[in-house]
Structure formats: structure tokens, C-alpha cells
Design goal:
The protein has 358 residues and is an alpha/beta fold. The chain is 39% helix and 17% strand. The chain has a seven-stranded parallel β-sheet with strand order 3-2-1-4-5-6-11, sandwiched between helices.
């Protein structure tokens, strides 16, 4: 019997990597997508073959269902129909800065959405059948109370996103303890990839570097260059999500590399990968990244990218995941991650430019 997995947020970076991983493991994979007038399934198009596949005698690799984290009835209907062995709740309004603009929607999808999912399982009487993985976040730690942050570190979220995710964390724990459900939190620190959304700082950097290197963009504007983050590769992190659900007992885990780097370091490595070496001059809003070879200013700070409430540093301690699950947090090193992203975006930008030139 094939195991059945249901992924919310399947069209996102993590959802697409997780779907591929579970298909390789022999799962029957289902995903929930929101109805939109334009398709937003680019990351899973290679998995989602439309109706015409029947004529080509091919099997569809993932099954998609219309639903929304803000709509209980759709969640109950889909879970009842799919009868999943495992649910991975990855759906969220996941952009920290945007959460200050849409705080109410962020709470509806990220906080109450998690409750709706857990309650749907309880209403359907699947407490003993279905295991639930809740995507938690390092933003829970916000104004960090200790370094590095581990499972026992107190939370201090600094954004509507972090606060909503804190509710998601505790309601998952509460349902685990109240109803004996296998419901767990994976507290993921920053995880990036070539599939990262283009408004996230790492992908914004690698795309800009690729455009600058190909003469299609003049400058890159960034916010706080001193922000310290624990950056890992999303493809490695989804494997750990699966491992957490295979563990004998339901427990919460920090998923991180245990290394910290600044936005400036990420910039340096990305430009170097494209054959450009930067020199940094000035401080604060006046700091600039200058191309050593041409003396051109390529990076500038723009205060509009500062957050109302800044998280200065995040550093996770992956000891528990490493020892209890046998997970390797640095399978892909930080320089390798930057290299993967820049190499992808150099080709991606070239392709887009050629298309627009036709």
C-alpha cells in the first residue's frame, strides 16, 4: 500500500521540493492550491501533467485540489476525500516584511489556518491515522534570548508573521497533548534555493547579480547588510521534515545549519560567482559595494527595505535533529548554496532576455 501525503503550499519552494522527495519515496502525493485566474504552478509543472496525459498513457505524479487555509469547509472536504497518512502544512503568507502590510490576512492563514487544519482532522476522526507536520519558523525567536537558538529557547517574535506562526506552533503542540495526535513542529531557519520567491533577499541578490553581470541592470538596492542569518538549502530541509514524521514519538525540532552569515557575505559570494569582486565603503545607509575592476557602484542601501522591527541575528542549533534523526544539516555548504542559485539565475536571466528580444 502506497502511503498518502497531503501538502498545503505545494506550489511554493518547499512544497515543490517535498513533492519530488515524496514521489521518489513511493508516496501518492496530493496538494492544495488556491484558485486563481492565472496558474501559479510553475515550480511543480514538471509533476503536474494536465488532462491530456491520459492520451499519452502517462500517470499524473501529483493530484491537486482547490482549497484555502482560510476556508474550513475546503480543508474538511479535501482531507475527507484524500484520507492522508501524512499532512505537511507548508501553506502560509510567508513574507516577513509583507506581514506588516497584511497582518490580518497573515493571522488568518498562518495562525487560524493551522487551527482549521488540526480541527478538520479531529472532526473527521483521523487523530490516530494522520500525522501532521507544521512548518514553524526561526522568526519565532525574533529578538533572540540566547545564541544559538534551540528547541528550549524562549520565543520573542518581531513581526505579525512571527506572532502568527507562534500561535501555529502552540496550537499544534496543544492538539498533540490534548488529543494524542502525532502533530509536530519543524522550526526551520532560513532555507534558500533556486526556486526561492524573487522578493526574498537571497534570490533578489542572485537575480540582480545575474542581470548586472549580463549588462541588464545597473545596481542592486538592499536593506540591512549586517543582518545575520542561518542559511541552508531548502532541498536538504524538506528531507528533515519527512524524517521528523518518521520519528517514533511526536517531537518538535530545530532545522538549521548552525552557521551564521551576513547579507553582505551573501552578496560577496554571489558577485564572485559571476566573476565580480566587490569592495565595501561607507557605513549604514551610506555603505556601497564597488566593483574593484571598474570602480562602478553596484550595491547601495535603500532605507525602504528596513523593517519596522528588525531581527538582527538568527542562529539555530541542529544538535537534536542531527543526533535523534541522523540528519546532516550541512550536506550543501553555504558557498555551494550561493553557487547553485547564481548558476541557475545566470541561465534563467539569459533565457528571459532572449525571449524578450525575439
Amino acid at each position: 500500500m502506497k502511503k498518502i501525503a497531503l501538502i498545503t503550499g505545494i506550489t511554493g519552494q518547499d512544497g515543490s521540493f517535498l513533492a519530488e522527495f515524496l514521489i521518489e519515496k513511493g508516496y501518492e502525493v496530493h496538494g492544495i492550491i488556491r484558485r486563481s485566474s492565472s496558474f501559479n504552478t510553475a515550480r511543480i509543472e514538471h509533476l503536474y501533467l494536465d488532462e491530456w496525459v491520459r492520451d499519452m498513457k502517462k500517470d499524473r505524479l501529483v493530484n491537486l485540489h482547490y482549497g484555502d487555509m482560510t476556508d474550513s469547509s475546503s480543508l474538511i472536504r479535501i482531507i475527507q476525500m484524500v484520507q492522508p497518512d501524512e499532512i505537511y502544512n507548508l501553506a502560509a503568507q510567508s513574507h516577513v516584511k509583507v506581514s506588516f502590510d497584511v497582518p490580518e490576512y497573515t493571522a488568518e492563514s498562518d495562525a487560524v489556518g493551522t487551527l482549521r487544519m488540526l480541527e478538520a482532522i479531529r472532526i473527521l476522526g483521523l487523530e490516530q491515522k494522520t500525522k501532521i507536520y507544521q512548518a514553524s519558523t526561526s522568526e519565532l525567536y525574533g529578538k533572540v534570548q540566547e545564541v544559538p537558538q534551540k528547541e528550549t529557547t524562549p520565543f520573542y517574535p518581531r513581526s505579525p508573521y512571527g506572532v502568527a506562526k507562534q500561535y501555529g506552533f502552540w496550537i499544534t503542540k496543544n492538539y498533540r497533548e490534548s488529543y494524542d495526535m502525532f502533530a509536530v513542529n519543524g522550526i526551520l531557519f532560513n532555507h534558500e534555493s533556486e526556486r526561492r520567491g524573487e522578493t526574498f533577499v537571497t534570490r533578489k541578490i542572485t537575480l540582480a547579480v545575474s542581470r548586472i553581470a549580463q549588462g541588464l541592470q545597473d545596481k542592486l538596492y538592499l536593506g540591512n547588510l549586517d543582518s545575520l542569518r542561518d542559511w541552508g538549502y531548502a532541498k536538504d530541509y524538506v528531507e528533515c521534515m519527512w524524517m521528523i514524521l518518521q520519528h517514533d514519538v511526536p517531537e518538535d525540532f530545530v532545522i538549521a545549519t548552525g552557521e551564521m552569515h551576513t547579507v553582505r557575505e551573501f552578496c560577496d559570494l554571489a558577485f564572485k560567482e559571476a566573476g565580480i569582486t566587490l569592495r565595501w565603503e561607507g557605513e549604514g545607509v551610506d555603505e556601497k559595494g564597488i566593483d574593484i575592476a571598474t570602480e562602478r557602484v553596484l550595491v547601495e542601501v535603500d532605507p525602504k527595505y528596513f523593517r519596522p522591527c528588525e531581527v538582527e541575528q538568527l542562529l539555530g542549533d541542529p544538535t537534536k535533529a542531527r543526533t535523534l534523526l541522523g540528519w546532516n544539516p550541512t550536506k550543501t555548504s553555504f558557498p555551494e548554496l550561493v553557487k547553485i542559485m547564481v548558476n541557475h539565475d545566470m541561465k534563467f536571466v539569459r533565457k528571459i532576455h532572449l525571449k524578450s528580444a525575439l
